[in-house]
Structure formats: structure tokens, C-alpha cells
From TrEMBL:
Identification of the protein by name: Acyl-CoA Delta(11) desaturase
Cofactor: Fe(2+)
Domain of life: Eukaryota
Membrane topology: Multi-pass membrane protein
Keywords, ordered alphabetically: Fatty acid biosynthesis, Fatty acid metabolism, Iron, Lipid biosynthesis, Lipid metabolism, Membrane, Oxidoreductase, Transmembrane, Transmembrane helix
GO BP terms, alphabetized: unsaturated fatty acid biosynthetic process
Organism whose genome encodes this protein: Camponotus floridanus
Length: 343
């Protein structure tokens, strides 16, 4: 602290500002500006999406309360099987294979992955891959399609109800998609996706129980509506729940977390702190735990028969070095053994 005379002849005390103080002030200013930009940003509501998503959830709730759950367990089992098939299409197909190129797949497996992805009934494969690549490159910024800094609802489903932030559109156009354009299976899926989606996400799942074991059309439709909506929310939870609640043993500075509950319902996609540090790992997790990572078991099976190959994963030494530098080392043991509690 030092004293100087002011222009009126009085004396004022001035604090000596250090380099650390300047850095703190700059950091606070940058944070304040980011939040101001975040909350000042206004975008147009996609009312068609708002109405359709809301109605879909209302119909699902009606189906849950009116469906005869114990009339024929084969229909319930089929509902579960279709859920797993769709989830595998997202996790092993759209995510680990096409988006991150975490492994290579022969054309036979690529066709299976395309059909499985269509069963999930989500966005066009090309759009899904582009948006997810943008998400990883600009995680939790304005360029992230489902920026978790905008809150749980936005990152979960709200981002589908609003027009994209201009940064998302601008950065999305810069994403390299040449590998997808060069993949005939992916491009076939892109060209005919509406037809393929209708057949495998809705038509066949409903027709199989009706013509397979004389299930009623009503119960077949209700069970698949329940399956479809719950599956969507399972995928969305990776963008929301696994970006808010959980531990950060691999990089404590980012939002993505390790969440075993999301890992269970999303077939292994909940080890999200690890995944954002090592996105090229075909397991999206440090260990091969098939209970909490069924997708890894799926890929490993096809690797054994030669349809999946060049499975990528970081060395144990690299993982340890990253944990020592960026992560919460005290939590590494808990995520290495998913049965243990995650804070």
C-alpha cells in the first residue's frame, strides 16, 4: 500500500496490484462476459419441436398407466431388446465408430450399425455425427449444440426446442466430414434415412409382436412408444446428467463427469470425464467392465470374428500421466472399479 496526493491536495491510498491480481481480475472479467453473453442471447423457439416432444412424452405417460404390463411378458422382453438394439446403434455406431473413429468396421458390421442406429429413431446420422464432433471440439461453449452451462433442461432436451446458436452453425460448417461422405453405408443411410427410420424404429418393432405372438395392436404400440421415449431420454442424459453430476478423476477442469447410473442406462456412455479426455478410446472408459459398458462387449465380440478391428485405446502410462496432471487422483480408484460409490 502506498499514499499519493490527489489533485485537491488530499491524500489517497492505493493498493499495489500484482501480476496475480491482474490475472484474477482478467479471469473474472472473462467469466462475467461469458455469462452476460449466455443470458443475453435470444433465439427463436422451434414450436413444432416443442409441441411434438411434449405430446410424445404425454402419450408415453398415458401408455405407462394404461398398458397391461403383465398380459404377455414376451412383449415386454421384445421392448427391452429393441431398446438395446437402438442404444447399440447410437453408442457403437453413431458415436464410437462414425463420430470418433475409435475402431474400424467391415461393411457387414457397418450395415448392422446403420440398422441399429435407425432403430433408435433419432436425428439423421450425418447431422448426429456433425453435431457430436462440434460438441467435443467446443464442449460447453456457445458453439456446443447442448452446452451444459445453459442448464440441465437445455442440455437434456431444450436444445432441440430452440434454433441453434450462430456459433454452433458457424463451427459446424467447419467440421471435417469427408470420411462420412466417403462411406457408402453412411451415405445410403443419409439419403434414405426417413424410410429406414420408419421401418426399423416403428413399423417392425410394432409388427413383430402382433404377427409373432398375436399381441394386440394397442399394446404393441404402447410398449414401443414407452421404449422410444425412454431410449431418447437415456441418450439425452449423457449430455445433461453426465455433464453435471459425478466425479472428475481424469480432468477436473471440465464439466463432463463419471456417472455410473448414466453408464448403466446408456450402455457404457456415462464414463464421460474419461471420454472427453480420451475420445478415441473405443471403450469410452478406462476398463472393460461389461456390466456398466455393454457396448464394449458388443464391439469386442465383433473384433473376435474380425468384423471390427484396429480398436484404439490409450496406454496405461498415458492415462496415469493425465490423471497426475489434470485429474482428481483421489477419485481414480473409484472409477476404475464402477461398483464403488461415485460422489
Amino acid at each position: 500500500m502506498h499514499v499519493e496526493e490527489n489533485f485537491c491536495g488530499g491524500k489517497e491510498e492505493f493498493s499495489t496490484i500484482t501480476t496475480d491480481d491482474e490475472n484474477d481480475i482478467q479471469t473474472r472479467d472473462e467469466t462475467r462476459k461469458k455469462f452476460e453473453e449466455l443470458f443475453k442471447f435470444k433465439t427463436e423457439v422451434k414450436w413444432l419441436n416443442v409441441i411434438s416432444i411434449t405430446l410424445l412424452h404425454m402419450i408415453m405417460l398415458y401408455a405407462c398407466f394404461t398398458v397391461e404390463w403383465y398380459k404377455d411378458l414376451r412383449t415386454n422382453i421384445w421392448m427391452f431388446i429393441v431398446s438395446v438394439i437402438g442404444a447399440i446403434g447410437v453408442t457403437a455406431g453413431a458415436h464410437r465408430f462414425w463420430t470418433h473413429r475409435a475402431y474400424k468396421a467391415k461393411w457387414q458390421l457397418r450395415i448392422i450399425l446403420l440398422i441399429f442406429y435407425a432403430t433408435a429413431g433419432q436425428n439423421n446420422l450425418y447431422d448426429w455425427i456433425r453435431d457430436h464432433r462440434v460438441h467435443h471440439k467446443y464442449t460447453d461453449t456457445n458453439a456446443d449444440p447442448h452446452n451444459s452451462n445453459r442448464g440441465f433442461f437445455f442440455s437434456h432436451v431444450g436444445w432441440l426446442m430452440l434454433k441453434k446458436h450462430p456459433d454452433v452453425i458457424r463451427k459446424g460448417r467447419q467440421i471435417d466430414m469427408r470420411d462420412i461422405l466417403a462411406d457408402p453405408v453412411a451415405m445410403f443411410g443419409y439419403k434414405y434415412f426417413s424410410i429406414i427410420k420408419f421401418i426399423f424404429a416403428f413399423l417392425l418393432p410394432i409388427m413383430v409382436p402382433v404377427y409373432g405372438w398375436n399381441e394386440t395392436w394397442s399394446r404393441a404400440c404402447k410398449s414401443q412408444i414407452i421404449r422410444y421415449v425412454l431410449s431418447l431420454n437415456g441418450t439425452w442424459s449423457v449430455n445433461s446428467v453426465a455433464h453435471i453430476w459425478g466425479s472428475k478423476p481424469y480432468d477436473a477442469s471440465i464439466n463432463p463427469t463419471e456417472n455410473k447410473y448414466v453408464a448403466l442406462i446408456a450402455l457404457g456412455e456415462g464414463w464421460h470425464n474419461y471420454h472427453h479426455v480420451f475420445p478415441w478410446d473405443y471403450k469410452t472408459a478406462e476398463l472393460n467392465n461389461y456390466i456398466f459398458n455393454f457396448t464394449t462387449m458388443f464391439i469386442d465380440f465383433f473384433a473376435k470374428i474380425g468384423w471390427a478391428y484396429d480398436l484404439k485405446q490409450p496406454s496405461e502410462e498415458l492415462v496415469k500421466n493425465v490423471v497426475m496432471k489434470k485429474g482428481n487422483r483421489n477419485l481414480r480408484q473409484s472409477v476404475s472399479h464402477p461398483d464403488s460409490k461415485i460422489d
